[in-house]
Amino acid sequence: MKILITGIAGFVGMHLGEALLKRGVEIVGVDNLNDYYDVNLKNARLTRLKKYPNFKFFKMDIVDRKGLSSLFNTYYFNRVLHLAAQAGVRYSIEQPFKYTDSNITGFLNILECCRNNPIEHLVYASSSSVYGGNTVLPYTENQVVDTPISLYAATKKSNELMAHAYSHLFGIPVTGLRLFTVYGPWGRPDMALFKFTKSILQEEKIAIFNYGKMVRDFTYIDDVVEGIVKVLDKPPTETPPYKIFNLGNNNPVQLMDCIEALEVSLGKVAIKEYLPLQAGDVLATHASTALLGEWVAYKSQTSVSDGVAKFVAWYKKYYENELT
């Protein structure tokens, strides 16, 4: 079994890679190691994976069509986990072309490679952001998602349309997963939980947007990995062989409750600065995971209080030299 994981040095990519490597799967990982956030953190994640003899890494941008094609022609992958993307809602307002390059052109390259090199299953990461201006909660997969409120969301919706077209035209088994606010050890420094932790420990203000009146379906990384692996093992078989699922916690919490959990785990009270809603942000997310539960018996297991405590423990250990 050979599996390609794009975005292998990313937060979800590293955890998925490690889970599959432990199963004895041969993993080929690619990542362009861009500087959207700390490259040292990405390299540290790769170091964890490189201890496995069944792991190979190639520094590559998925925009590189020839390089990607050569990789597919060399390794004859059974399955593909496509996680590489330019992330971040707010950054898409500042750097739109980075999103069209990676999330549109890059994804097209992946689809073309899967078309020309038949695979058992392509699983790709979509996002809860595709629900955009929808106000009916919980979000369900049958809702119309034609009102993105950021370019990032628009590119992820485009991925779903492109994937469906390729599945229909060429019979590629494809599953898209709309991920909901993934957090945990080795997480992304641009995410709120990471930023809050750093600021609280340094006794700096934390920026709380929409005056704290935000609700998020925080989903712990171990639950996400379990869901993705189960989906990877069960390709769709209908015509076209295409599925789309929410992958969340199905138990949203108030942002202020998450901050309180952080304060408890850190043993420090945050200095709070309340600010208006930022452009591109949504007020609430809530994933219905009923369809995914029916498909692969998925059910999240980790409460936000437990997940935050595990993240804080990792953070203190990873950054212990900076905290002393």
TrEMBL record:
InterPro entries: Epimerase_deHydtase (IPR001509), NAD(P)-bd_dom_sf (IPR036291). Keywords: NAD. Pfam families: Epimerase (PF01370). It comes from Polynucleobacter wuianus. This is NAD-dependent epimerase/dehydratase domain-containing protein. Gene3D superfamilies: NAD(P)-binding Rossmann-like Domain (3.40.50.720), UDP-galactose 4-epimerase, domain 1 (3.90.25.10). Residues 3-248 form the NAD-dependent epimerase/dehydratase domain.
